[in-house]
Amino acid sequence: MGGAIITFRSIKSLLDKDFTVDFLASVAIIVSIVTGQYLAAAVVVVMLNGGELLEDYASRKASRAIEKLIQSAPVKARIRKDGREVEIPIEEVKVGDSILVKPGEKIPIDGVVISGNGSVNQASITGESMPIDKTLDSEVYGNTLLEDGALEIRVNKEQRDTVFSHIVRLIEEAQANKAPVERVADKYARWFAPIIVVIALATQLLTNDIMATAAVLVVSCPCALTLATPIAVVAAMGNAAKNGILVRHGQSLEEVGKADMVIVDKTGTLTRGSPTVVNVIALDGRSVEEIVELAAVAEKFSEHAIARAILKKAEDFGLNVEDPDDFEVLTGRGVIT
């Protein structure tokens, strides 16, 4: 069955006046079967189809990561209706509805802040891991995380028209319309195949030995190249995933090698997006520990990334951070304690 598929593809490529690796492979398979070398034919089929299976595996792995991102989107929203808070499916939310979002919750849909303030992590949309302060009239996006504060939001887009939904559609369209990146083995076969055919014919004419001709065709079949690229792609995609990089398709890795310049965001991409306190300068005769303790008390109830960095420094010093008597967050400015 595998050999028949390869042979069919080779015939199609010949009709298009193009030599591909399938042509060499199909000739090697047919000659091997005719001469009774069934194991050689099976090896060619397994190696050629094995490369394609690896490519499909890499593609499915990237698709699963994208599906996981889609499934992370909120499925319900809390709206204000007749003076009461009611949870409804996200599909039933309409433009003009007022939705309520509490700390630690994801914003379910795009809209504009009409009350409250808070810090929103927009990494799922922009890739920027540092929280963005949101106040009255600020734009907010669905599937972003409210880390601190509370917001009342007026919906200004239907669920299918949100920025997140648009990103999902772009990814799906990109997967459905893959760029025609040529396989390394096909580039090799385009000029190599005619030469091998001539050598095989010459071998048959000179030796009149079909086994020698079969050996020439089987040995020259570029099976190793059909496996080389997929194995490298699977390994690279796996390693990228371990480092938090999602490669949509193996073809992207082949194309990026042609790039002259790569432009990336710094925070959260080249850096972890988690600030740390690296130095403390104490003035007016105060100790470093005293300064860190005062700052940690002030920031104890804050969810901001900088507040977490200060509290981590206090923990490293082994300080006992007490609760502040009063605490108020001034969005975009800091805290009052």
TrEMBL record:
Limits of the P-type ATPase A domain: 73-172
SUPFAM superfamilies, A to Z: Calcium ATPase, transduction domain A, Calcium ATPase, transmembrane domain M, Metal cation-transporting ATPase, ATP-binding domain N
InterPro entries for the chain: ATPase_P-typ_cyto_dom_N, ATPase_P-typ_P_site, ATPase_P-typ_TM_dom_sf, ATPase_P-typ_transduc_dom_A_sf, ATPase_P-type_domA, Cation_Transport_ATPase_IB, HAD_sf, P-typ_ATPase_IB
Subcellular location: Membrane
Cellular compartments per GO CC: membrane
Assigned keywords, A-Z: Membrane, Transmembrane, Transmembrane helix
GO molecular function terms noted in the UniProt entry: ATP binding; ATP hydrolysis activity; ATPase-coupled monoatomic cation transmembrane transporter activity
Parts of the chain that traverse the membrane: 23-48, 188-206, 212-238
Main subcellular localisation: membrane
Family stated for the protein in its record: Belongs to the cation transport ATPase (P-type) (TC 3.A.3) family. Type IB subfamily.
Protein name as it appears in the record: P-type ATPase A domain-containing protein
